[in-house]
Structures are given as C-alpha cells and as structure tokens.
Amino acid sequence: MSRNFYKVSLNELKKVININANDYKLYKLPQRSTENSAGYDFFLLEDIKIKPKEIKKIPTGIKAQMNEDEVLFIIIRSSLGTKHNITIANQIGVIDSDYYNNKDNEGHIFIVIKNESDEEKVFKKGDRIAQGIFTKYLKVDSDETKEKRLGGFGSTEKGE
Fold first, then answer.
1. Are 106 and 8 spatial neighbours (Cβ–Cβ below 8 Å)?
2. Mean pLDDT of the chain
3. What is the C-alpha to C-alpha distance for residues 79 and 148, in angstroms, rounded to an integer?
4. Fold of the domain built from segment(s) 4-136
5. What count of Cα atoms within 13 Å lies in the side-chain half-sphere of residue 67?
6. What are the residue ranges spanned by the domains of the chain?
7. 3 state DSSP class of 127
8. Are the CB atoms for 20 and 43 separated by under 8 Å?
9. What percent of the chain has pLDDT over 70?
C-alpha cells in the first residue's frame, strides 16, 4: 500500500461547507514546510471565528491513505498553542488506517479545536491550523481484534 493525502470528493465536502468547484480545485493538500519537518501542515478551507472556551469541528477536505500498521496523529501547530492558546480538543487526533474511504464520509479528516483563551480568535482561509505526523505502531503478540470499522468520525466508540 502507499501513504498519501487526497481530497475528499466535492460532493462529500459540500455536506459540511459551502464550496464551489473552483475553490475545490485550488485548496492545498497537507505539506511539510521545511526539508526536515516531521509534520504535514493542514490548511483552513474557510475563515473561522472561535469564541473563548468554544470547541469547533473544522473540516479539512482531506483524507489520508496509509499502511495498516500506521497511524496519523493530528497535533496543533505550536504557534497556535503558544501565541493564541488554541488546543486540539481531544489533545491528539488519531486517524487510523481503516478510516480512509469509510462509508460515512470517505475518511474526511476533521480537526476539533478549542479556544482556551478569553478572547475571540479569527483565522483566515489558507492559514495552517494543525499538523499531521505519520508513525508506525506495534501490537501485542496476543492481539486478537477482529472488529471492522463501521463508519466515520467516532465510529469505533462502543457505548461510551
């Protein structure tokens, strides 16, 4: 298999934001900023405002294909944390390999952020909001998981 970023379909993206075909063609896939960057920057598709203490689910328009023994971690960009007091609401986003092309949302990655400050924050379309880092993971020798992903965002929860 391979490791890559792709755009979700225009129809899938239109379910969560108002976007036209031209803007769909123009938005960027995640990319590294420098030669030795570990993280791939994710860019905002539209302007956002986030009130103090508010949690906001941000669509990226991106899905990630990776090997089955890999995970994509979504982490806030350090400048957003230190300069703006913005965090990832669940601390670290975990994108499993079987999230890619799931039946509910094609594997559309959302980034859930929280404004921990006492001021409203405004970010512009095209701003870098978070970074994704691919890594391999290990399983215990006695691992016997046979469950299959049923759907999209949060679908592996079992009665939580």
1. yes
2. 92
3. 37
4. Deoxyuridine 5'-Triphosphate Nucleotidohydrolase; Chain A (2.70.40)
5. 9
6. 4-136
7. coil
8. no
9. 91
Per-residue model confidence (pLDDT) at position 149: 59
- CB of 120 closer than 8 Å to CB of 50: yes
> pTM value?
0.89
Q: Are strands 70-76 and 110-115 parallel, antiparallel or unpaired?
A: unpaired
**pLDDT by residue (tens digit) across 33-58?**
999 999 999 999 999 999 999 999 99
Listing DSSP states for 30-57 in one string gives PB-SSTT--SEEEE-SS-EEE-TT-EEE
**What would you report as the CA-atom Rg of the chain, rounded to the nearest whole angstrom?**
16
Could you list the beta-strand ranges (E) of the chain.
Answer: 4-7, 40-43, 48-50, 55-59, 62-65, 70-76, 86-88, 93-96, 110-115, 121-123, 128-136
Res 157 pLDDT > 70: no
Give the CA count within 13 Å in the CB-facing half-sphere of 45: 27
User: Hey, what are 116's tokens?
Assistant: 């921990």
Task: For 109-156, write each residue's pLDDT tens digit.
Answer: 999 999 999 999 999 999 999 999 999 999 899 988 777 656 665 555
